[in-house]
């Protein structure tokens, strides 16, 4: 599972990079057989009242499915990463469970032998 980190508007400190990698691994490691690449982009975005907020965009490229993109905006980068990683985990679990159910039902139609 390849994790690619990007930053726009604010530099990624080594401690933030380490935190993002640990958080993504913690949330998404169970899907490592299904995932090709995870791209995490942290950026500054203009918020309400002229202040800047942190935006975290996570794009998960799956091996046999459409990509999953999650975005979250918070006051702090760590909070944005936490929420986006949690939402990515829930979304992947839901999508992969649906795919397994669909495959199971499709396979069961043809597995009966005619007697």
TrEMBL record:
Secretion signal span: none
Domain of life from the UniProt record: Bacteria
Compositional bias segments (type: Polar residues): 105-115
Database matches in Pfam families: Ribosomal_S30AE
Record-linked InterPro entries: RHF-like (IPR036567), RHF/RaiA (IPR003489)
Coiled-coil positions: none
Region described as Disordered: 96-115
Name this protein carries in UniProt: HPF/RaiA family ribosome-associated protein
